[in-house]
Specification:
Elements (H helix, E strand, L loop, with lengths): L8 H6 L6 H5 L1 H7 L5 H5 L16 E3 L15 E5 L4 E7 L4 E6 L4 E6 L5 E6 L8 E3 L5 E4 L4 E4 L5 E5 L1 E2 L2 E2 L6 E3 L6 E5 L25 E5 L6 E5 L5 E6 L5 E6 L11 E8 L2 E10 L1 E2 L2 E2 L1 E7 L5 E6 L7 E5 L5 E6 L6 E5 L5 E6 L2 E6 L9
């Protein structure tokens, strides 16, 4: 996702459903006044040589003790790296035991090696301002570049998987997931890379829909056929399968540009190669404030872990929702969190790309999917 600078002042003043970055960040003061446990997130020092954080980590919040069982009492949130311009798209490679993520404005992708914590700062550079990443079931990296969806082959070559839909260029792919049964790739196309100089190149079409209506697509990797499967979200962003592959969840960040949009996550029933029964599944409002749901992953119990932000301390970080959409936990970070994924040898380590940094924390659950 892009930053919310595109809001106009008129939109920001018109109501609570549309606001600019300044309005979003004002939420920090409101949370503090309301007594939300935000002081640790805003004051915590993640720099080298600081004193250890006392167990249990105060920035991992259990909101529902009966349903949120993933907090580990004797572990803390770690900052593994900082220095990005805008970090996005973490994906875990189980075969190589490494994490890859994107730094969109810097036109690069980085890699974290789990064996010794080494960071490769130019794993892929240039990256065509890639955003989201994933791995297919052959261990090949899939990336949502600014103009197309691509796959990195085992021999080092790059295959373009999708560049057009309906005879028109894609707006700008964002995030994707791979289905284990038919190896199809489901991806979102909000077009942020075509309406921002900082994270891409302006399409110069004069439209917030750079080339066509923003939508969710399914790519049949066997035939190459690309099909639009949903277009209810104003700007579909993060995407995830439910733990049992019966549903598809889609984050909507259309509030960055559309006055009538809301910070919600959509739910669809998954029927083979089609989606049906669209519903607004999760409302991101917390204590009267609402931030963006950017990316998400699902654990083996069906809980939805969402990267959230642009409000301030006490909100920004990761928010965890039960399968019925009720908020049950939070992980507070001192930066807006865009995306996350489960990784590590047991797939019980949550990696979080948050603005300029990469964070990680062990949890007492595992990711439902391969990366």
């Amino acid at each position: 996702m892009t930053n919310p600078k595109a809001f106009s002042d008129n939109q920001a003043e018109a109501g609570t459903d549309h606001f600019d970055r300044r309005t979003l960040l004002k939420g920090a003061a409101a949370f503090a006044a309301a007594g939300v446990a935000a002081s640790q997130a805003s004051a915590r020092d993640y720099g080298p040589g600081v004193e250890p954080t006392r167990y249990p980590d105060p920035d991992i919040l259990v909101l529902d003790e009966k349903r949120f069982k993933a907090k580990v009492g004797n572990t803390t949130i770690k900052r593994l790296y900082t220095g990005c311009l805008w970090a996005e798209g973490p994906a875990w490679n189980a075969q190589g035991q490494y994490l890859v993520w994107s730094d969109i404005p810097a036109n690069r992708q980085l890699r974290y090696l789990d064996d010794d914590g080494h960071i490769s700062e130019q794993f892929h550079k240039p990256s065509n301002e890639a955003n989201g990443n994933s791995f297919d079931f052959e261990g090949r990296q899939i990336s949502a570049e600014r103009t197309r969806l691509v796959r990195y082959e085992h021999n080092g070559s790059v295959t373009s998987l999708a560049e057009q839909a309906n005879g028109k260029p894609l707006n700008g792919p964002n995030d994707m997931v791979v289905h284990p049964n038919d190896k199809s790739i489901w991806f979102t196309d909000p077009g942020y890379g075509a309406i921002s100089i900082y994270e891409g190149q302006l399409a110069k079409t004069g439209s917030l829909q750079p080339y066509q209506k923003e939508a969710v697509y399914r790519l049949d990797t066997q035939s190459g056929q690309l099909s639009k499967v949903a277009d209810e979200p104003f700007k579909p962003n993060g995407i995830a399968f439910s733990h049992d592959y019966k549903k598809v969840y889609v984050c909507d960040t259309g509030i960055t540009h559309y006055p009538n949009a809301k910070n919600v996550i959509w739910s669809y029933d998954l029927n083979g190669d089609k989606l049906s029964n669209p519903k607004q599944f999760i409302d991101m409002t917390l204590n009267g404030k609402s931030g963006f749901p950017d990316g998400m992953r699902v654990d083996v119990d069906g809980n939805v872990w969402v990267g959230a932000g642009w409000v301030g301390a006490g909100y920004d970080g990761v928010q965890i929702f039960a399968p019925d959409g009720q908020r049950i936990g939070q992980i507070l970070l001192p930066e807006t969190c865009a995306n996350l994924t489960f990784g590590g040898k047991k797939r019980n380590r949550l990696f979080m790309t948050a603005s300029q940094s990469l964070y990680a924390v062990y949890v007492e659950t595992t990711g439902a999917h391969n990366c």
